[in-house]
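Margin note from the TA: students keep mixing up input and output lines. Inputs are the sequences; the output is the structure of the whole complex. Example:
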Amino acid sequence: MSTEPDRLQRVLADEHAAVYVLGVLGAQTSQSAQPALYAAVSAAYAMHRARRDHLIATLADQGAAPTAAAAAYRVPADLSTPDQIAAAARAVEEGAATAYASLVGSSVGEIRAWAIRALTDAAVRSLGFGAVPSALPGVPH
Amino acid sequence: MRAPESVPRTEGSGAPPVEADPDEVIVERIVAALGSAHAATVAAAADAGLAGLAAPFQALHEAHLAALDAAPVATAAPAPVGVAALRTVEKALQKDLATAALEVASGPLARHLAAMSAAVAQLVSQVPAGLR
């Protein structure tokens, strides 16, 4: 059975990947030609960075060594259109929703409260990238 | 046939009452909150101007009630609600679901309640902000 630090480390690994991918997506998005998409990707990047930093601080407070980011992460090969960028960002948010829903179910107290807020944010943010509302965001069908 | 005197009675025997499962108590509270929100959306759906906005909420509440092995209970129709009131009802429900997700002991139940809260938040986010 995994411990709380183990579970937080897994979510941190996901957030490292999210920050990397969203950084790439931001670089592929034109602020002048696609201002709404640029703003949405930038906001998502800032949010995931904040969550990553929160997880690092929480793990450090627990005496654990936070998982380091990998040198690179897989990103979609073709990001030449706004739709492809939005789809990649949507995948990041839907993956985050799944990770945080799992954390809700395996934590208590402050960690669970934080995970509930993060799940809600990811679920709502995914709509801005074209996701369809779901009856149970983050819960596999 | 009379029961032997040694058989303890369930009433007035001084035996401790069986305590309800705290998670079940929370689920009952959430079923009631979902039922109230559902009644509000049914009322809102009767207004042609609100039907389009209310229908997704109504369907969502029915799905969530079914997930909790409950069904909408027909209640006296509440007063019709406007967009602002509908938004207020749904935001309150979202908060109730998040609070319940934090309170329950069961991890799987917490995950589902949190996802329900997030689902309501998704629909609330799609209600045009300027409408009243």
